[in-house]
Amino acid sequence: MGDGAPPEGWEAPRERWLSTVVRPAFGPRSVLLEVATRLLIPTILVFSVFLLVSGHDQPGGGFAGGLVASLAYVLRYVAGGRRELAAGMPMRPEALLALGLLVACATAVAPLLFGASVLEAASVTVTLPVFGKVKFASFLLFETGVFLIVVGLVLSVVSALGARMEAEEEEVRIVRARTTRFGRMRGGPR
To answer: Which residues form the Na+/H+ antiporter MnhB subunit-related protein domain (predicted)?
Structure first.
């Protein structure tokens, strides 16, 4: 201890800032990345909902909002790996895709039940106590379906790619653990 060297593991964070981080997907744990992820994810998700809601008359919509929400989950994956991503997902990516497709298709076809054409928009204005007059439009439901499809697709791609990358990394770790410093395999034929 008197040689001036820092104690073993001194740089490792003592507290976990994300729910399941034991070993992140890439490289050593970074407390700065974990804290930044924990602080940024709620902000990113609120911004994605803003893009979703304001997209009918301004730039944005379901696609842009879905991409921004997906960014939050990709950041969570980079900070904590596949387990952290799975812990933060509301449901499986395939279920999000299916739900989004169901909502978008139902919203597109629903006007036919009322004698209107496919994808025809309807709106209703209500007065809410705090917000005043608020206009709800049917295309917001369609955009929500698109939002869910985009998030589900990005999450399924990240999960699939992440699983393969982590499996390859585990194989390399096993080979390194079995290889001696002279290049021979331990426990193998001599």
So the answer is: 33-155
